[in-house]
Design goal:
The complex is a heterodimer of chains A (287) and B (287).
Chain A: E1 2-6, H1 16-28, E2 33-36, H2 47-55, E3 62-69, H3 75-88, E4 93-98, H4 103-109, H5 116-131, E5 154-158, H6 162-165, E6 174-178, H7 182-199, E7 206-213, H8 219-230, H9 237-243, H10 249-261, E8 266-271, H11 277-284
Parallel strand pairs in A: 1-2, 1-8, 2-3, 3-4, 4-5, 5-6, 6-7, 7-8
Helix pairs in contact in A: 2-3, 3-5, 8-9
Chain B: E1 2-6, H1 16-28, E2 33-36, H2 47-57, E3 62-69, H3 75-88, E4 93-98, H4 103-109, H5 116-131, E5 154-158, H6 162-165, E6 174-177, H7 182-199, E7 206-213, H8 219-230, H9 237-243, H10 249-261, E8 266-271, H11 277-286
Classes of the chains: A alpha/beta (287), B alpha/beta (287).
Chain lengths: 287, 287
């Protein structure tokens, strides 16, 4: 099982130089991917700009959105931005795609909230065509550049609902679950594998999950402060999210074991504390 | 007068590593800015993604869109991407904004071509509010992050038509002229200064111009081949533009003097040959 690490791009008041130094450390370390979250009405850095900046800092590590809220964006511009990022990073982009659940993001983008799942499917349809070099329509030519990964970046479908997981029947190379409970994530993986089988594609979907961690002194109070702010829109559920943060190296090691058992191919650790020693403290858990 | 250089992001089959090396060389050299063009239905690398990758490779040099076709994009997503790029590059972004003249780009983005000027103005209105930390509307909070440059990145209004240049009455820190003969450029500068005066802002608008260059063996022929392809939508005008390419050290030095006499604050030289020696050859002309 591979281990990826999130960039601290959603933590308030984080400087660009910290993001860049974090990326270099992770590149030198034992991590497979750098991951970013996405949100519009919040103080976070845009996920694609963040990954593009760290692409310029790194040579090896994969760059992953976990997940990108594609329906907030215009599909042809998004196809061009992601193909560009894939080409400029020499084929290192993994595009986790989802719809999110915050109405304010959709209001800010002037995109209808309730048809966002359908919009994502239309976007996947168009982007897949554009990435393979086909024209927009009979009157309008293709939208380049050509991605380095053949046919476009690796796509992970991010979802909880069975209907959303079933998008794997038509699109994507794998599945991305946001999880705190390995047993529940294991059930979602089962749904993803079933959708993949129905698609008739050979092999298995790549199975990715993410968890949240904070290590070192005051990890509990510092991660709680951040999680209650980031998940304020969930109301009382925000405390549940805060309680699910992995706050000791023992908990991180136990989680790695639990996710390995359910067949996870890559586990992402999303940070809560914007300090560089988090990268080293996490690496110590499994290196 | 400052001298900027374009990134070779609009050429067929160039690698991400060439873009990255070009950015590093220019950062080491005598150049003030790295600039990118923007287009959707073409094989070029996307403008903001390219600048973000270059930001990760560089420390000092400014990053400029010359120009970005803002109306093709969703304004709140664009505001976030631009603020992110400004913050992650430590305040190095200059956002040249224009509307372009190719209908195919607008068809691909499903945006009305004929109202694109009005759309740009609405976008400037919204983005300016978001960059100062104001909420989207009464129901919807602010869209971060905070840019490093107070109130948002430096804005250059790009255009030829008086109506476009007059946007400087409401928005922008300067004017970016996109080619034409010297008399036309001079006329645009005077219109820009008049619009600035009517706005009541102190001082003068920053005046930026761009010109094409290609140096070395067969520079004129190689440059012409590129210009005729890139500007094919212009028809016979493309032939005219190919003749304007600065293809010897002597013509470059003469042009620098002329642009300086016109009152240009920064001249951006856009490449026609995607090879690293162009950066050194151009630097030699400035020395």
């Amino acid at each position: 099982m591979k281990i990826g690490i999130g960039l601290p791009s959603t933590i308030p008041d984080v400087s660009g130089s910290l993001i860049r130094a974090w990326a270099r450390l992770a590149e030198d370390g034992p991590f497979s991917s750098l991951a970013v979250l996405d949100r519009l009405v919040y103080g976070n850095y845009d996920p694609l700009m963040t990954l593009a900046v760290v692409a310029g800092e790194t040579q090896r590590i994969r760059l992953m959105t976990a997940v990108l809220l594609a329906p907030l964006r215009d599909a042809s511009v998004l196809a061009k931005q992601t193909a560009s990022l894939d080409a400029l990073s020499n084929g290192r982009l993994t595009l986790g795609l989802g719809v999110g659940g915050r109405e304010d993001d959709y209001r800010a983008a002037s995109v209808p909230f309730h048809s966002r799942g359908k919009r994502l499917e239309q976007q996947l349809e168009l982007m897949t065509r554009l990435w393979s070099g086909q024209p927009v329509d009979e009157q309008t030519g293709p939208v380049g550049p050509q991605s380095v990964q053949d046919g476009g970046p690796e796509i992970l479908i991010g979802a909880y609902a069975p209907a959303a997981i079933n998008r794997l029947e038509r699109w994507g190379h794998g599945f991305l679950a946001a999880g705190s409970d390995a047993r529940q994530v294991g059930e979602l993986f089962g749904l993803a594998e079933a959708a993949w089988q129905r698609s008739g594609k050979p092999g298995k979907p790549r199975l990715v999950a993410d968890v949240v961690f904070a290590l070192g002194p005051d990890a509990v109070s510092r991660s709680t402060t951040y999680m209650l702010d980031y998940y304020a829109f969930l109301g009382p559920m925000a405390q549940y999210m805060a309680d699910s943060v992995l706050v000791s190296q023992e908990a991180v090691r136990a989680t790695i074991q639990a996710y390995e058992k359910i067949g996870t191919d890559e586990l992402l650790f999303i940070p809560c504390i914007p300090e560089l020693d988090q990268v080293r403290l996490l690496a110590e858990c499994f290196a | 007068m400052k001298i900027g250089i374009g990134l070779p992001s609009t050429f067929l089959n160039i690698s991400g590593s060439l873009i990255r090396e070009w950015a590093r060389l220019a950062d080491d050299g005598p150049f003030s800015s790295l600039a990118v063009l923007d287009r959707l239905v073409y094989k070029d690398f996307e403008a903001l993604t390219t600048l973000a990758v270059a930001a990760g490779e560089t420390q000092r040099i400014r990053l400029m869109t010359a120009v970005l076709l803002a109306p093709l994009r969703n304004a709140s997503v664009l505001a976030k991407q631009v603020a992110s790029l400004d913050a992650l590059s430590n305040g190095r972004l200059t956002l040249g904004l224009g509307i372009g003249g190719r209908e195919d780009d607008y068809r691909a983005a499903s945006v009305s071509f004929h109202s694109r000027g009005k759309r740009l103005e609405q976008q400037l209105e919204l983005m300016t509010r978001l960059w100062t930390g104001q909420p989207v509307d009464e129901q919807t909070g602010p869209v971060g992050p905070q840019p490093v440059q107070a109130g948002g990145p430096e804005i250059l209004i790009g255009g030829f038509a008086p109506a476009a240049i007059n946007r400087l009455e409401h928005w922008g820190h300067g004017f970016l002229s996109g080619g034409g003969d010297l008399q036309q450029i001079s006329g645009c500068y005077r219109l820009a200064e008049a619009a600035w005066q009517r706005s009541g802002k102190p001082g003068k608008p920053r005046l930026v111009a761009d010109a094409y260059f290609g140096l070395g063996p067969d520079a004129a022929a190689r440059s012409a081949a590129y210009i005729l392809d890139y500007h094919a939508p212009l028809g016979p005008m493309a032939q005219q533009m190919a003749k304007f390419v600065l293809s010897t050290p002597e013509t470059i030095k003469a042009s620098l003097r002329i642009f300086e006499e016109l009152g240009t604050d920064e001249l951006v030289l856009m490449p026609c040959i995607p090879e690293l020696d162009q950066v050194r050859r151009l630097a030699d002309c400035l020395g």
